[in-house]
Amino acid sequence: MARGGAGVMTSEIAVMNQRGVALAADSAVTLYAGGKIIVRNDQRKLFQVADDLPVAMMIFGVADLMGHPWEVLLEHYRKAKQPRPLTNVRDYAAEFTGSLDHLETLFPEARQDDEYRRLLVSVFRFVFRLCNYLRDSGAEGTDEDIMQRGIEMVWQRYLVRDDGTARPDLACFPPGFAAVVEKDYAAIIEEIIGYSFQAFTLDKTARERLHEIAVLCVTKDLFLEDVTGLVFAGYGANDPYPSVCSYTASAVIKGILKRGLTAENRIDSRVHASIALFADSEVTYAFLRGIELDLEARMYATFHAMGQTLVDQVVSAFTDVDPAQREAIRRQFQTERVPQYVNRCFDLIGQYQQDTYIEPILSVVEVSARQDLAEMAHDLVNLNIFKKKIMAQKQTVGGAIDVAVISRDKGFTWFKRQGG
């Protein structure tokens, strides 16, 4: 998050039932200046999308887009589009993010080139972190071997989802956009690969993978770079009940904002209650699911990495098998079998969590009044602030908590707001 000098490390919660949706966000912002990290507690992260509309937006992650704070971009949207009632909340999210496309006055072409550099460097940092993790997890081989394995894993991740299905291109880009990125940024790609991996002797395949990653990191529905999270919640004109949808956005490339729909939760005749967590809400996550998010993620990654290492060791033990056949078997098990078994294991654990922890809480949310929803959202954010204090951690979550409630009959109303 160093690119804009500020990051919105935050805790944000959406609690909703058939009566309405309550949103809560803390006010901490992390600033990066002169190598120092400064935390302030005066950042507003919860906004009404437009007057008289029952829709709100929350932000987390990178606090700006190419130097422009998100609240400034929201004001631009209000003036440019003069928002009117749309069919559903997802339409507001699409209209807002779409209003940032082809906006040369705010995002000049030269600045977009710098933004592509930032995006690609951020992705390559992810590759290095993955390789360090593989080494720490006991992966065998030289530094070059591990680096090439990490590059291959990231390349595969851009092409294939964890469930084995093909990863789609982002809908925000037109057909043929990958070829434009590859052609127009060829020199930048070569330059960044050169200085990022100059310490490694990589084979031809690995270098080809890096060039492909340099294009895939723009066009594919995967965000390994520093990003902003955008949360939209409330009611569309045709919505009898509230919904929440979240987008991920990272950079304006060739005039188009790279963004993708992350999740959508809707209250309807089947789903009567929901709690959605965003950003640094690990204590709330643990409260709801019985295990801290970071621990769960580490367990998943460790199982996956150990499975990959086990495949390496087993396949390498068959020295009398043709090397090409060994490599084909290795790739099949590492890209297909290991992810399938790890995912199945965590699916079973997830079902236990749903039955034991989540459902009892949702049964209370379902019958809660709107004020109760607001108080619950506030307290769930406060859990994360309390953890930072009690563990003497840097207060990247803290300060005043903004809370708003949106309902069909009363629209957007503040329950608690910085400054009163």
Describe the structure in your own words.
The chain has 420 residues and is an alpha+beta fold. The chain has a domain at 6-103 and 228-292 and 371-416: Glutamine Phosphoribosylpyrophosphate, subunit 1, domain 1, CATH 3.60.20. It is 48% helix and 21% strand. The chain contains 11 helices and 15 strands. It has helices spanning 70-81, 89-98, 109-136, 143-159, 177-184, 186-196, 204-219, 282-289, 293-317, 323-366, 370-390; strands at 6-8, 11-17, 20-25, 29-33, 36-40, 46-48, 55-62, 64-65, 68-69, 228-234, 243-253, 256-266, 273-279, 402-407, 411-416. The strands form 3 sheets. Strands 1, 4, 5, 6, 7, 10, 11 and 12 form an 8-stranded antiparallel β-sheet that branches. The chain has a 5-stranded antiparallel β-sheet with strand order 13-2-3-14-15, with helices on one face. Helix 5 (177-184) packs across helix 7 (204-219) and helix 9 (293-317) packs antiparallel against helix 10. The longest helix is centred in the last third of the chain and has 44 residues, at 323-366. The protein is globular, with a radius of gyration of 23 Å. 37% of the residues are buried. The model has no long low-confidence stretch (mean pLDDT 89).
